[in-house]
Amino acid sequence: MKCQMYSALFLAVVGFALPAQSQPSPIDWTLEKFQPNLPYGGRADTIAVNPSDNRTMFVASESGGLFKTTDGGTHWSHVDTLGAYYTSAVAYVTSDILLATATDRFSVRNEGGGIWRSSDGGVTWSHIPSPSLGGPRDLRFDAREISIAPDTGDIFVATSYGVAKSSDQGASWIVRGPINFAAISVSAQSGNLVIAGSNDSRFSTKVIRSDDGGATWAATNFPVPVSFPVPVFDLHALAASPLDANTFYAYGDPDFFVSEDGGVSWSKIVPTFSRGPQDFCGGIGFVKPLATPTGLTLWLGNRCTVAKLVAPQIPGTSRFDYSGPVIQSTADHWDTRDISFRTQGPDTGAPLLLATDGGLHRTLDGGVNWTLTGSGPNGYNALQITEVKGQWIDNLAKYDLYIAVQDNGIWASGDGGMTWPPPNAGPEGLNIEMQKHFPSPADSVVTVTACGPCTNKVGGRVFSQTYGAAFSGLHQWPDPPGPVVGHPTSIFKSFHDQGVDDTPGKFLKGFAATHDLGSSWTQYAVVPAERRDIPKLSAIRVAHRQLPVQYQAIRTGFDATRNFEIVHLVRLTMSPPSTMASVYFPAMNGFGGIGISPPDWDWHHVFGVDPKDSQHLIAPDVINGKIMESHDGGDNWSEIPGLTSLVTDAGRFQSGAGASPFNIGIFPAFPFDLGHFPFASHVSFSGDDPNSVAIGTQQNGLFVSRDRGATWIKVPNSERATAITSIDWMSPTDAFVSTLGRGLWKLTGSQVVTSVRPLCVIQSCRIKSIFKGDPSPDRFKRGIVVFEGEIMGARVEAGALRELSVTPQTSLAFVGAPVKLAIRYTNQRIGIIGIETNKTFALPSGRLLTGLAMDERGGLFGALYTSGRIPLSDKSATRRDVRTADARFVLQQNRSPTLSKPYISLSATGKGMDNVEPEDPLTLTGERMPSGAVLEIVLDGSAIGKTEGDRSGFLKTIIKAPRELGPHTLIVRDANTKRTIDGASFVVRHRDA
């Protein structure tokens, strides 16, 4: 019987599919936590223990906000009432009053940065208005370390404008200066003594002191090594002795110091102790002095490991003996950041919780050994996931998921993220590359850059399985001959390309290609400009042949006014029979510059390429502050109507920020731009159906389009997922979302519909009873319909539908109301489990099972059969196949815009990879420099040397990368006029073994 005979069944379905409708029906989108069950929880910066209850603690994570435990650290919950996520410190003032500090780069009114206060034990939080700042600096008010004077209870906070002070338990604040000193750390002692430290490279002194409660300040003689003129002053670098009012301690990488005269003079007290296998780590240095019956115990963190030093009091003096042995602890993750102690009871002062880049650790033996706690299902989920990627194994109907986690590995899941078995691919990494579909496990090829140290690697499915006879498990990727300066990008299964630099006798700068997994390489494209990130893939159809198209971000210039790079695009199009790609530099008319999504060290450039229309691009423009679109391959751009306002919440958030949000802890607080970061942090098209497009943001959640970017909606409550780094579409209505500090999330779209009548206009359909006799039409008030797939089975418990088995990439729609279901993907018919009658469907000839009808209790009683799969989108209204173009587009070529002006390049030397680590030698080359001019090299605003080009305008010199982690800018300018000639940005990352 025809479906039209029955009224309202499962509407879900057809709202999308009506030929008469040019717009798809609305989809209800939800974003829920989907945290991987890993042993790690992510970077924790500060721990605060309730002074009257050791079991209650707060933790300020680096970029995931605050977390709270009430059972001593076993279980944690996120504090959603704090409107900030780049948190630095948290501290108890009393058992009920807490303070937290944070930075905010994007809200116009600095809604998140500065000081937060709670007067109800951390249940609710209020943002303290920024104090009157004044002064010559034009920085946002950021706050970092918190310190409370032990005698007066006055509170001091290190801020971007100096040291702020409160004398009323944090209710009101004044900045007590100095207003031009961007403080990172602060420590208050009895008797109005206060010291503060900065990592700002503009200041010759790194530690200042006040003996009148912050009213006036003076420099100290804190040692500044000649070889390292900017000692990185960490968040917890300063501490006051609990036994002597004139004694302070400090950490100045890599050493520890003491002052016994109120901070005036300093001396080294502890020989540098072991950093473990690393020689430079990514944690936060700290000093924690505790009083003991015989003197002090100093707990020391050197960014890598934690140790203690017992310092007995010297008889007859107020001084302490620091000559004893340094006793190191062991932990299951290093890069230490903070440590806390019990605040009451007979074991007051005993070590309680350790914070590292890996997460949180507990000890059962007084701090000798530390083990991870609280992560995964236990709630401390502050993982900084820089990337999520997935692939379908078609013959298994399995979706493999891969994530790259800063500090904590690259992980693979063979069951869609339900489990994450070891081993992972390395301490951390980036650039996970594979095809979206593989016929079988043996066909799967995955490449990744695994760091510790960084190398390119290749493996089979979930890293551990075998790829044919080529390799078993994860192994070294065969890079192109010459310096390794790029990462492999997957074009087809065994066809990859990779960035290369000039290599005599081998390659010109640009790309090399391999069709045999690295066994042989040939030149693929010549691109003289500096590459940024890796290419993004699309396709085009010419003369019945589908050709790969890639867009690569390149540095085309430098904006001296804004002090950051100008990044545009180059297009590479395979153009047979030639083995070389056509290289075209789009005009970029109406577009200023591509921006950066700034994980700590893995910078992704933010633009999206339609996978089936290589001329369709979407990108936030960091120069003009708009979200733009091109339909001609990047030559001409226009703003997407209404989207910029929607994404920025009508101007509540800036469209871009000019300084790194990581200006906390170990990262520098420079007063000038170090790159430009768009508020829209990621753009992603669904590879199978580009009608689905998503844009992630820094603070305003996720935005989705179902018509290829023409119209957009915000996913409700998605602002909980802050600092979105990537989006991976499993189906057109299901995606995984990674964040920098809030872990992994799952985006799901579904419909709730009321009429199925138009369905049968698209597909001939029949409704049959699961039991005897066809059901009456008025009973079809609830149900499920699937798009782009079919139902293979179901599981019923207690008479209600609990699980649905569908083919891969199926999307769901509900009739009447949504139903909570477990979804299983399979290619095998399972039937219905849990009811006695008709456990398997006898499919009518030429029909697919695409819907189920339920009664009000959720019990099944009807089945919907259609003549084919129900389309999610009206294909006549929105094209979904690969766009066809003529040969002119494929053969389009032109000259690089960088060849007509002075241009510099930076490359790491002797490292075999394009990562820059502390104090690495960097090769600076310049072309077309002014002839005969004396040139000045400027790093982060400070001149570091002079040079000049030869007669042809070529220069080459070696400089040393800074020791400070994070973003940096190098410019070459005329030494006499100070006019900037060109500049480039780079990132220094910590060195993992």
TrEMBL record:
It comes from Bradyrhizobium barranii subsp. barranii. The keyword Hydrolase applies. This is Exo-alpha-sialidase. InterPro entries: Sialidase_sf (IPR036278), WD40/YVTN_repeat-like_dom_sf (IPR015943), Xyloglucanase_GH74 (IPR052025). Belongs to the glycosyl hydrolase 74 family. Residues 1-22 form the signal peptide. One of its GO terms (molecular function) is hydrolase activity, acting on glycosyl bonds. It comes from the Bacteria. Keywords: Carbohydrate metabolism, Glycosidase, Hydrolase, Polysaccharide degradation, Signal. The keyword Hydrolase applies. GO terms for biological process: polysaccharide catabolic process; xyloglucan metabolic process.
